[in-house]
From TrEMBL:
Pfam families: Peptidase_C12, UCH_C. Coiled coil: none annotated. Its EC number is 3.4.19.12. The keyword ATP-binding does not apply. GO terms for cellular component: cytoplasm. It comes from the Eukaryota. Keywords: Hydrolase, Protease, Thiol protease, Ubl conjugation pathway. It catalyses: Thiol-dependent hydrolysis of ester, thioester, amide, peptide and isopeptide bonds formed by the C-terminal Gly of ubiquitin (a 76-residue protein attached to proteins as an intracellular targeting signal). This is ubiquitinyl hydrolase 1. GO terms for molecular function: cysteine-type deubiquitinase activity. It comes from Rhizopus azygosporus (Rhizopus microsporus var. azygosporus). Transmembrane segments: none annotated. Belongs to the peptidase C12 family. InterPro entries: Papain-like_cys_pep_sf, Peptidase_C12_UCH, Peptidase_C12_UCH_sf, UCH_C.
Length: 284
């Protein structure tokens, strides 16, 4: 629900700070009431008019079940400065639930969610749980960038110390090229990777810390083990391209489903029934 709440707050911010727009009686009264407030978020959520508008907007969202008369609000949990914080949109401010760290904060959050879910179930209130995570596409793209850089460094080392190594690996290289071109999903992943390239560091712009880890991992390898690592990296690159292609397929499916859910089929159904009536397929 975060995007809808931010949209509502963003629109209100524009309206309340633009003198060239006639914002009407209700917004003018709210503007005068909150003129000295440093933050209007809590006042917005306490205002009946805005709460109803927010609930109407949430009910209109196609992926959420509509509940007549319901008032929606979001509760967020974040780890910040060694504490688990609860951000409840209907409370005065954030509150600390527990002291924790990166390794155990999800356990504390899970316990809190279980407690909340039990309470809402007893009140017969619906609850939805969403996780905000990094895009899988960008995660795979970053890994791919690192693997491609590592592949290039190994090839440079082999070219320097064993110039004829490519002859013995020619068959593997041909199989790799064939795998890149024979799978539609892998080809799709390659295209997506090219589009994502500007979001991630290029191989020549990787952080120095990551470069040092790569140099350290390959510098002590013998030439035979370097070739084995080189072959393994080829397999990992193919898998990453395939995962990128799968993510792209998912996005396409989600977009199609979204269009289907939003499309108004009623005019077609009415015309179809009318045509059946006119052709005598229905009894009077």
């Amino acid at each position: 629900m975060y995007s809808e709440a931010y949209l509502l707050h963003g629109l209100l911010h524009i309206l309340l700070n633009c003198n060239q727009i006639d914002i009407g009686t209700d917004l003018n009264q709210f503007k005068q009431l909150t003129s000295n407030y440093t933050s209007k978020g809590h006042a917005i959520l306490k205002n009946r008019l805005f709460r109803e508008a927010y609930s109407d907007m949430i009910n209109a969202w196609p992926y959420r079940r509509k509940v007549d008369g319901a008032t929606y609000h979001s509760v967020s949990y974040v780890l910040r400065q060694g504490n688990l914080w609860e951000l409840d949109a209907l409370k005065d401010g954030p509150c600390i639930l527990a002291s924790c760290n990166e390794d155990n904060w999800l356990d504390f959050m899970q316990a809190e969610l279980v407690k909340k879910a039990k309470m809402y179930q007893e009140l017969d209130l619906p609850i939805s749980i969403w996780a905000v995570i990094e895009s899988r596409k960008l995660v795979y793209q970053k890994k791919l960038t690192s693997k491609l850089f590592m592949k290039q460094e190994i090839e440079n080392m082999l070219d320097k110390h064993q110039p004829d190594w490519r002859k013995s690996c020619q068959r593997w290289e041909e199989e790799y090229v064939h795998a890149l071109s024979s799978s539609e999903r892998i080809k799709r992943g390659q295209l997506l990777s090219n589009r994502l390239a500007h979001h991630c560091s290029r191989s020549d712009q990787l952080p120095n810390e990551e470069k040092q880890k790569i140099y350290s991992s390959i510098s002590h390898n013998k030439q035979g083990s370097l070739i084995d690592t080189w072959l393994q990296i080829h397999d990992e690159i193919l898998r990453l391209y395939e995962r990128l292609g799968l993510e792209d397929e998912k996005d396409e499916m989600y977009k199609k489903n979204y269009i289907r859910k939003r499309h108004n089929y009623i005019p077609f159904i009415q015309s179809f029934i009318q045509a059946l009536v006119e052709q005598g397929h229905f009894h009077p």
